[in-house]
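Why does this matter for the project? Reviewers at the last site visit asked to see concrete outputs rather than summary tables. In response, this paragraph embeds two records directly. Each consists of the residue sequence and, immediately after it, the corresponding structure tokens. Nothing has been edited or filtered.
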Amino acid sequence: MAQTATERAYRTIREKIIRLEYAPGELLVESGLAEELGTGRTPVREALKMLACENLVVIIPQRGIYVADISLTDLQEIAELRLAVEGLAAQLAAQRITPQQLERLRSLTHQLAHTAPDDVEKLMEIDRQFHLTVAEAAGNKHLADVIVSLYDKSLRLWRLALTRVGSIASSIERHEELLDALEYGNADKAAEIMREHVRDFHRRMREAF
């Protein structure tokens, strides 16, 4: 199905916010965005309303629309939610995952282990695809939608702390352990590993901030 102008504007602006191309606190001007995206102001206005519902932009009457800031409170709240929903997703995935999804996770784990440590953008994308595949394997669309939103907000934190986060070697080991638990259908173990993985990520983010 073809995307509407509003959907295209939403996805493009959202991606630029996640990638920090629009910095936290930056003023977003409808006319400028419309010109940049080659679309009308109405699709941009509607897209910004959608992003406000995700807490990625803040609309302040009489002042303007700003990219949402990132705070330690945001970090804590995102961590609490990710621990709950991604642990549940891993638990469900261990019971419902398909052979095709397992093969995709194997491929992503292999790519992660063989990607240069300084190729951060590629590492981020592989890690994102891994988490979203686990969410998909849980077989619950609403749960997957929540995980996508929370994970992408975590990416903003990751990018802000890039130079201070350090090696992801332990993260690669967690992916391998999780893959084993999913393959053998060990739901409790899968949930435990995923929660520990998320907990470790957010601990490192707190230290970086």
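We now turn to the second protein, recorded in exactly the same manner.
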Amino acid sequence: MDKPLLKDSIRLFEKFGQIKSRSMFGGFGIFAGETMFALVVNNKLHLRANARNEEAFKQADLKPYVYQKRGFPVVTKHYAIPDNWWETPDVILEHAERSLNAAQADKEKKQQASPNRIKDLPNLRLANERMLKKAGISSVDQLFEVGAIGAFQALQESHHESLSLDLLWALEGAVSGKHWSVITPQRRNELLSKLETSALTAHH
């Protein structure tokens, strides 16, 4: 049951201003104003990772929350904190403040940089926007949330013909703000490996 933990978390984060929660990812997203920086799900508090603390989270062996979307696993940026952190709430607050600052910075950057329409993103045209809409992805925010892999899998599901991997590179470029041709071979291999893993998980 997530509710008692959600109440404790909201109480702890009140120093950040107006805190509210919304149902999200099968749990409850915690927002300061309109910015989500934490998640309560499976009776655990998760904090949003950013460039500064993601490495520290991984080294501390914290695990990101994974949820199922259309039968495929989607890895979020929210990492479950250990239960013993609750013994020293200041540690939680310190990490949560970094998560909130980074989430706000990301949001501002995205609002300044990203176009309002999918067709205006790098590599994508109106035909791609229509395909994605048919697959249930109708906004730039949704595309950024599911990422290149999630979008490609949604297209595979809604599209009857086989899709070229060029479309996967185009989606990755659209999400990362670059031309598809500059995506490195290493990144392409990572994407293929993730695609394969997700497909195997979905079939089990």
